[in-house]
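Box 3.1 A note on notation
Throughout this textbook, protein chains are presented in two layers. The first layer is the amino acid sequence; the second is a token string describing backbone geometry. Keep the layers aligned when reading.
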Amino acid sequence: EISADSALHFYDRYSDTTLYMQNEKEYEPVRLLRTVFGHNGRYYQMNVYTSMVEEDDLVLQLLYSLLWLYFGLLATILLLNNFLLKHIWKPFYRLLKQLKMFRLEKPSIDVPPTGIEEFRLLNNAVQGLLQSNIASYNSQKQLIENISHELQTPLAISINKLEALAESGNLAEDQSRLLASALDNLERLTRLNRSLLLLSRIENRQFAETENVDLNALVKKIAADFEDPFHFRGVRFTLREEGQVNVQMNADLAAILVTNLLKNATVHNRSGGELEVLLQQNALQVSNTGSETPLAEEVIFTRFYKQATSGASTGLGLSIVKAIAGLYGYSIAYNFDGRHNFRVLFLP
């Protein structure tokens, strides 16, 4: 506030000076206007400051401010959105978790009720679909087992009758040759029927019982059973134990896995060849000296794959081995280094 006399003789004045900026924490150049105004018979002096900062600095400061504002808003929106979505989609993720844990041994899923109509409909639809598929699966499994069992009896009867006919001694040479061929085909059909039934049971997870299997002892036991085939084909068998192998699986399936690998390595070995079983920690490798060319890796584990020297093989032996390994999450691989190597890795 100034006196009336000072106000009457005061003229507006402009000047350049500096002013301390709190946000910048430094002095900035400003334009100062000193002027006087009156109010209710009293007079006051007013100082008006105008920034003289360069336009580029103003634009840059404005840009930084807008960027901070943008990222702040974006972070807030993302956090809120994430929180809301997690809350809204919680029934869906619960259903998804139940589906991931679904096993044929436990065909029902436990989904908590939800108040969201869309997810309630989804839960009901999924449960209905599962029940329908489980019913179809059980029906198909039962059909396969029935067909296989029904085939076993007439096949066995036919083989017995043909063997009796062959032993009668009243057949000509051509008739005996035809009869032998028919017997071979029937026996192959019997083996094929048994192998397909076994493969179906493995894939349908019907071997639920598991135990700790000593693979070292199992290999020795099965190799002893193969002494006659080894001697007949002149195969030199070697067992190398570089570690103790214990696996958690069904004991019958473990025996089938080892038997099929040894049988495959024996049948497809050359006369006077070598067969080696290598036992390492968590691994079993069966190697043999068969053909001098590698096998087709992409098809050797498929059903009905047979080599030229297969003879009466069903072509299902390695498929069964792969199915057993896959049942427990184990892996089987083939490689050729002058010998044919089949390696089972017992690591899920």
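The chain has a mean pLDDT of 83. The longest strand covers residues 26-39.
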